[in-house]
Amino acid sequence: MSGRTPLFVNTKCECGHQNPAATVLCEACGKPLLDNTDSGDPLEMRYDGMARRSQKANPGVVDRVWNFFSSVKIAIYLIVLMLLGSTLGTIFPQESTFLNIDPSTYYKQRYGTAGEIYYRLGLSHTYESWWFITLLVMIGASLVICSLDRVLPLYKALKRQNIRKHRRFLTRQKVVLVRKIAEDSDAWVAGAVQPLKKQGYRVMTDGSALLAEKHRFSRWGPYIIHIGLIIFLLAVLARGLPGLNMDQHLAFPQGDIIHIPDTSYYLENEKFTVEFYKDEEMPEEFRGKKVLPKLYETKAVLYECTADCGDPSKEPKLTKVALHAIQVNDPLSYKGMKAYQFDYDLTPVLRSVTPKLVNSATGESYGSFKLEMKNSQRRFAAGPYTLELKEKYMEFGLNEEGQPISKSPYPNAPAFLFLIKGPNLPPGGEQYFYFPKQNDKAEFQQDAINDKLGGAGRFLELEVGDMSGVDFSESTSYLNLRVDRAMPFVWTGAGIVMLGLVLGFYWQHRRIWLTVDGGELTLGAHTNKNWFGLRREVKAFLEKMNISVDEKSLENGGGQA
Amino acid sequence: MGNARKPVQIIILVLIVLLGGYAIGTSAFGGDGKPEEGSRAPSFELLGLDGKTHKLDEYKGKPIVLNFWGSWCAPCVKEMPALEAQWEKWKAQGVVVVGINVGEDQMTVQNFVNGTGVNFLILMDPEREAVRSYGISPLPTTFFINAKGKIDTIHIGQLDLSTLDAQIGKLVNR
User: Fold this and answer.
1) How deeply is A58 buried, as exposed, middle or buried, from its count of CB atoms within 10 A (0-12, 13-18, 19+)?
2) pLDDT tens digits, chain A, 561 residues: what are they?
3) Do B129 and B44 share a domain, yes or no?
4) Cβ atoms A201, A64 nearer than 8 A
5) Bond into A348 cis (ω within 30)
6) How far is A380 from B98, CA to CA, in rounded Å?
7) Is the CB of residue A261 less than 8 Å away from at least one CB of chain B?
8) Residue A218 distance to chain B (closest CA, Å)
9) A402 CB-contact burial (10 Å; exposed 0-12 / middle 13-18 / buried 19+)
10) Same domain as B39, residue B26
């Protein structure tokens, strides 16, 4: 952001120092090199007048790319573009805010033509789009290159400051004082050290010249901000790496151990409880109209698989690693994975029944067996009888041809077909249809079916005595499982940004140069902001040195206070 | 720093290109979400009716027809004979047909297969893990995967003989 510089400049200063091209103020004595006029205008003090790294006489290709990114103007354009791009993503909700939608139809249905255009332009996932990520990467590049380009010359300039500066450098500062002094020059300068030190300055003298400086670290504030931003950006971009980010919603029926996909963890919902507000606890307008849950809690156990994990032909070996009663905003947390309470479903799901085989004629019971809905055993024994499971239907129904089929894989209306063998039965056995649920028994007419299958002489029945013979999964808890390993880096980056902001905001880098030459004191002072404070400090110092001065008169030329 | 300036500049620019390229690349070519036509077929490891564990990698270099089905889904049941017929026709050319059952247990699957008499490989996905990684919602859904392991086409709904034939032909001739 500097003016055009002529192609060839004699860069050797009168003090004998050889300056790099595009140096504004001599690196050694501070003499203004670009305008040799004796105008009193305040100097351009950016980066202490050093040439920025990117300012070269004959830039090559690499230099041109470098220079593009090192321009603050370009950085501002990029940031403005990113802001404009970000606003596009807020017109309609982003795809990532929904759990189960088909974006290709949702936007059109919900928002009409505008929604469809929005989806087709890819704005329904603005923040994951290639152009947005490209902008982020370019801003990151600009941050790195801008900082390096400026911080190194600035560091060097501040590291090796000459105490004695060119007179024109002093008189063209924004805070200037020129006064006649009666005292001996060296003695006056030596006497000035103590008062300045009292004001918190670090003071260096060189005979009749003096440099007082304080709070230089404040100059590094912006660069620390940039480092923080770079870490922040890298963390955000790294979230896409495998294993760093997971966000899924899973159903956990009570009592089942469920594998969490893409991890070696299994989670069991041991018990899910939900409490509702009583009518008298609720405000008037809700009473009798709404059911509001007061608390829902999943007692969860987390297992880690230690052997035989990926192989579906083997049972995985699990070890308990964590226990937690998950409530809303109180997740189970283990090694960076968190399980949040998300939703619930109070529909009970049948897991197993334990029917007895009885003789309906004599009332004799031959014993019972456990019949699981899923992965049922194929053979059972009850007294002298053997039962072989031939067919099972999770949700019994009939197809167009009148054949028995299952209408879904969920045990909503289970039915089982057994072949029973044993005493007083035909040698080939007898078929028996069994509906565990009482209402299914009636609806599908179990007795009529079995009369057809077993004939008039049949005497065996399967019966469930009471509810102790039925095992339900009473409810299903839905949990949201999350891993976000990039988050600590995001916070670290944000913390570093904050530190940089504090450094830059609450302290100012102040410098006072003075030389006493031939009975004349020339004083120049510079700060990066809060000139008012600097002028007040200079005035206080001069008063200690018995020079009374009006604060306003220190100001040289127009400029911000 | 003076002489090291150029190399340092180049190293920084190269790093930015690498990191940035990776970030932009994953966003442009769908780093997450459902597999789409043209993307790589997600891997799976499932138990087959033959009692063995099967992985997608086993069929590297062969065109694969991956059919997700359930015994309760009428169109799935209806398209089984077509899948069987086309498998018989194309298997000499190295085409693999795999049926992945969704969320049912071994007995149900075995009974169903015995009833329909299909002979191509049937795998079971009781935990619906493959269903999740392939982003299946309606059944049946069939993936045509080419020999390079890339998804060529995704067909949602019932297949008939001629469509199936055309799709497999396309796969083989790629």
Assistant:
1) exposed
2) 444 544 455 667 888 888 887 788 888 888 888 766 666 678 888 888 888 766 666 678 888 888 899 999 999 999 999 999 999 999 999 988 887 777 888 999 999 999 999 999 989 989 888 999 999 999 999 999 999 888 988 898 898 888 999 888 998 898 999 999 888 888 999 999 999 999 999 999 998 999 999 999 999 999 999 999 999 999 988 877 777 888 889 999 998 899 998 889 999 999 999 998 888 888 888 887 778 888 889 999 999 999 888 778 788 899 999 999 999 999 999 998 999 999 999 988 898 999 999 998 898 999 999 999 988 999 999 999 999 999 999 999 988 888 888 998 889 999 999 999 999 888 889 999 999 988 899 999 999 999 988 887 888 999 887 777 888 888 999 999 999 888 899 999 999 999 999 999 999 999 999 999 888 999 999 998 899 999 999 999 999 998 988 888 888 764 443
3) yes
4) no
5) no
6) 33
7) yes
8) 24
9) exposed
10) no
Question: Do B65 and B3 fall within a single domain?
Answer: no
Q: How far is the CA of A342 from the CAs of A156, A268, A275, B129, in angstroms? A: 56, 15, 15, 21
Contact: B24, A134; criterion CB under 8 Å: yes
Does one domain contain both B100 and B163?
yes
Q: Tell whether B3 and B80 lie within a shared domain.
A: no
**Residue located via tokens 């299914």:** A440
The verdict on A141 touching B (C-beta cutoff 8 Å) is yes
Length of chain B measured in residues = 174
What is the tally of structural domains in chain B? 2
Q: What domain range is B156 assigned to? A: 35-173
Nearest beta carbon to residue A392 from set B6, B107, B132: B107
Sign, CA torsion A542/A548/A550/A556: negative
Helices (H), ranges, chain B: 5-28, 74-90, 106-116, 129-133, 161-172
Map residue A429 onto helix, strand or coil: coil
Q: Quick check: A559 contacting B, CB < 8 Å?
A: no
Cβ–Cβ gap B23/A240 under 8 Å:
yes
How many CA atoms are closer than 13 Å to the CA of B162, on its beta-carbon side? 0
- Structure-block tokens of residue B46: 């499932």
CATH of domain A164-218+508-554: 3.30.310.50
CA dihedral sign of residues A487, A488, A492, A495: positive
Question: Is residue B61 located within the same domain as residue B15?
Answer: no
